[in-house]
Amino acid sequence: MSISNASPISTYISAIKNEATASATYAKTDATTKQEVAKFEKDAASITSVDGLLKDYSVLQVVLGAYGLSSLSNATAIIKDLLTQDPTSSKSLAKSSNNAAWLAFADAFKMWGQNKGTSSVSPFAPDATSAVISQTYSATKTISVNATLPAADATGQTYTTAPVTTYDSQSNAHQVALKWTQDSSNPRTWTVNAYDADGNATIDTNAYQVVFNQDGSLASATDMSTGKAVTSGGAGSTVSLPITLNITPSGSTGTTHQSISLDLGTLGGTGGVTMASSSTSSTISKSQVASLTSPSGSSTSLTLPSITLGTLSGTNQTYVTAPFDPNETSDDANGVAAANRATLSVKWVQDSASPSTWQAYIIDPYGAQVTSTTFTTSFDSAGNLLKVNGQYSHTIPALQAKMNGVTYTVDVQPPNLSTSTPSQDSTLTTDSKVTNTVTKVNMNDVVSQFELSQYENNNDFQDNGVGNALYFTRKMSSVTTLAQLMSDPILLKVAETVSGYDPSTFGTLDYNQQVRMLKSKVDFTKLRTPKQIQQYAERYLAMLQITPQTPDKPATMMDLYGGDSSKAGIAALFGVNTSSSSSSGNLYSGMF
């Protein structure tokens, strides 16, 4: 590529807009970069030791380039110590050097550092997903609800949300869903219950009465177990319904209680949960979970309509129907508390050994004792019912369950499985955050960073300083201290130039002198935003046009440690006299 007719600043501004794309294109046209990337992609995943990495020159060059450490390519003693010592130890080279680039490099390969340079598997992962070894989730504190309930031009309507995944303090997942039931006489009054959609009865029995204004906004919410209002504030007050998650921690026989708030929105507000203005409104939320019904009016003879249990490709799936009170009419009339009501659900569980087979039985989703019959269903490749209890049949026997001395019968209609993954429902969302524990190196990231490094270090960009400006822009956002800046030769060179110093003579000063001179020149409060960093890089390019510098190979990492023209460099931090030897190995021995 030729950029000789363009000013360095305009070239930099153009390059910064799409550097990732430009670097990928450069990598395809530059023979050396293309060859080394191909070798890395072919061999990296088979390397399981530091010695193996050091013996593979191409893979090593890509890795060092990706971490901005190409200058260490011949310093095998330092590389080996960085990768075979635990970077979390204060005695390790990476930690004790206070060199940010070295520490980042060692930390990325911590799998080796904590196992003396070897591992049973390669630290290189082909993609971001396989680089994540484990995930932890913050305990859920709030479930936010965003739904539009059916309009007030009918009564006795119901709505059940899709489940949402919540997490306890040990990152265990629990599925929670909400069932809304409209009052039979007052169409603007609803009862909402949260329940364990896994059917494990981890949610305490609960019931809240929610009343809506004529315009569909929230008017009030009352805890039906106490008769007390959930919120006593006026318009704009948040309506949060408390529910309790009961967990038995692993290895414990006791139960812990985790409080979760159901955030319905605000009194008089138009967000959160509202009622539709009419039954024809397109905004009405559709029930995502089926419920038992009592079509004959009998409280003991129930029906489960045909439902889609899950997907053909899914594993370890369950389906729990929404809680159903077969005595709801009489319970409502007699004011029976939620804790004293009989609630029934049919739970379906996929067989882990035979994914096409599901078992069904009746439970109380809040944990009351239920004795139930059971049956199994199997499905064909199209998701249609194929077998019942291992026999080719479409006739499903009724489920029977006894609860509190009463026998209930459920007529089950043939279910099915979906051939496609359903779209994600966003009615319920939580505040849980995920933390990924990454102990492998993403190969795609390494290649991308290496290509950026090669692009920035091509001859055209090195001659006019654009490569250094691009590197500075890319790296500076994570640099917050002068020590971090001075541990990176390119960042240091940019700062020296902008500060009005000639890097070739500045490097002859001892480290403490360099610190004193730069401390008053580099203001990190003015290097916080992308715009500030870009303006600083442009100043660097402008200074080069005023006072050109003789281009040569980028300063090596060892320059900072007194390994080149510097008389002391950063090695002065360690009280090391480097005048007697320029060997990186001797320097390392002297420093540590």
From TrEMBL:
<dbReference type="InterPro" id="IPR023157">
    <property type="entry name" value="AGR-C-984p-like_sf"/>
</dbReference>
<dbReference type="InterPro" id="IPR011491">
    <property type="entry name" value="FlgE_D2"/>
</dbReference>
<dbReference type="Pfam" id="PF07559">
    <property type="entry name" value="FlgE_D2"/>
</dbReference>
<dbReference type="InterPro" id="IPR037925">
    <property type="entry name" value="FlgE/F/G-like"/>
</dbReference>
<protein>
    <submittedName>
        <fullName>DUF1217 domain-containing protein</fullName>
    </submittedName>
</protein>
<feature type="domain" description="Flagellar hook protein FlgE D2">
    <location>
        <begin position="148"/>
        <end position="285"/>
    </location>
</feature>
<dbReference type="InterPro" id="IPR010626">
    <property type="entry name" value="DUF1217"/>
</dbReference>
<dbReference type="Pfam" id="PF06748">
    <property type="entry name" value="DUF1217"/>
</dbReference>
